[in-house]
Design brief:
mainly alpha; about 5% strand
Length: about 450
């Protein structure tokens, strides 16, 4: 018999039972469900809502069930719909009628809300830890490539000279924001919905502050209707995961380009590449491509939950059962992508000569040439026009700004002198950009120090 039987005169149709059931996916919240139930039982006993010995018997029974589940000795039943009813049924079978007292002053609405929050709360630190590991690899790559000159791009066109170290720190800063977004999300979800009941709390003298503290929450939620109908925390979490995956996808795209023969800036380790079934020469960046592809999957999870919630009246509606699978899938996807992406990046080989050769083309020191004239007193807009004419001259003559004869420079402006070649040297261009956040060695070293401090602060918490 179902725990909610009484009002009904007929058994649930098998199709409806299967359609209604969530045990196939919410079973992963067994630990959170049992933890929440133990806190609830302890509160019931302390408040005199049930006898103290009954609360103790319930808690001991739940502990045994938890141990049995973790030992693989429990098989959940579809007939009992969800993880909550499975565990309550199991408890009653094991300890008798005392088990039926557990659900006093509680609804599955606040029960699932607390289970779900506890689960997501537990996963966020794991994801943050994985991002911090990736940050450490980025720092290592940056430290090894402080003077590895390469082209920086806009519109996928060579734009200005930078270094591979500077490039790595760009992604390190993106990921730092991802960590703080997840931390902010964790702070906002740190409120306990247990005790909200179905939507209007209870006539029993429940102590919501006790259960909130017992479960590690900062406080109880402030409104009982909001408590059972809110999934903002899950939507915010999926949003943070989507932004994180977007950053990994952008990085993956760069790696896919860089390891192609057209760029050949990096070489992927054999352990993090695959081959072709027909073309023996191929070395494919499948890890990066899969991360790029799985980003869409996480986006889909976010859109799923936003769509589920977009027109729901207060308070709980069965639609909200659709909240968990998308969140679980996003968690699994992110936690699968981060370690393999980190290992791929850690083992790739940087090819500085190829980067330097690419940086020599494309006139990426043109802005520095204009700055050279500006520093000699010419207005920047005039200098910009003159350098544009020089670039055009170089293209026609098959030269670069570095190789163009001085007489040709001077034919355009007599402000040019022999020192222009030193000004146009790529390392000069990079190391002259000492502005905070720039690509000069000392500027990148400061960025590295900032990321190191950020990571260390969190690892020592």
């Amino acid at each position: 018999m179902k725990l909610w039987a009484g009002r009904f005169q007929k058994e649930t149709d098998t199709l409806v039972n299967d359609f209604n059931s969530s045990i196939t996916f919410d079973a992963r919240m067994y630990k959170e469900d049992i933890t929440g139930s133990m806190a609830h039982a302890a509160m019931l006993g302390k408040q005199g809502i049930i006898e103290a010995h009954e609360a103790e018997k319930i808690i001991e029974g739940l502990k045994v069930i938890l141990a049995d589940i973790e030992a693989g000795q429990v098989e959940f039943s579809m007939e009992n719909e969800d993880i909550h009813m499975n565990i309550e049924t199991m408890l009653t079978q094991r300890i008798g009628d005392t088990g039926k007292r557990l659900h006093t002053a509680r609804s599955r609405n606040d029960q699932v809300a607390v289970d779900f929050r506890l689960y997501v709360k537990g996963e966020i630190p794991k994801i943050i830890g994985m991002v911090l590991e990736l940050e450490k690899v980025l720092v290592k790559k940056a430290e090894a490539n402080l003077e590895t000159v390469m082209p920086g791009y806009t519109h996928l066109q060579r734009a200005q000279p930078t270094t591979f170290g500077h490039y790595m720190m760009a992604y390190a800063n993106m990921l730092r924001r991802d960590v703080t977004r997840l931390e902010d999300c964790l702070k906002r979800m740190d409120e306990c919905p247990l005790g909200a009941g179905a939507l209007a709390t209870s006539t029993y003298p429940v102590d919501r502050f006790q259960t909130a503290a017992a479960l590690g929450f900062q406080k109880p939620t402030d409104n009982s209707m909001d408590s059972v109908s809110d999934r903002d925390f899950a939507i915010e979490f999926l949003s943070a995961c989507s932004i994180l995956m977007m950053h990994l996808s952008r990085f993956s795209e760069e790696i896919i380009l860089w390891c192609s023969w057209e760029f050949k800036y990096v070489e992927l380790d054999d352990a993090y590449s695959t081959g072709s079934s027909i073309m023996p020469q191929k070395k494919n960046p499948d890890v990066a491509e899969l991360v790029r592809g799985k980003t869409g999957r996480v986006y889909g999870s976010l859109m799923t939950l936003l769509t589920v919630m977009k027109a729901l009246p207060l308070a709980y509606n069965k639609d909200m059962q659709e909240d968990k699978e998308c969140v679980f899938d996003a968690i699994d996807t992110v936690e699968m992508c981060l370690p393999v992406f980190t290992a791929m990046l850690d083992t790739l080989t940087v090819l500085p000569k190829n980067m330097r050769a690419a940086a020599s083309g494309g006139f990426i020191n043109a802005t520095d040439c204009a700055d050279y004239l500006t520093k000699k007193g010419m207005p920047f807009r005039e200098a910009y026009m003159i350098v544009g004419r020089l670039v055009n001259m170089c293209i026609k003559a098959g030269e670069t700004l570095d190789t163009l004869p001085l007489k040709d420079f001077r034919s355009i402006s007599n402000l040019f002198d022999a020192d222009v070649y030193q000004a146009l040297e790529l390392k000069t261009c990079v190391n002259g950009r000492k502005v905070y956040g720039g690509p000069a060695r000392e500027a990148v070293e400061q960025q590295i120090a900032n990321i190191k401090a950020f990571v260390e602060a969190r690892e020592h918490e």
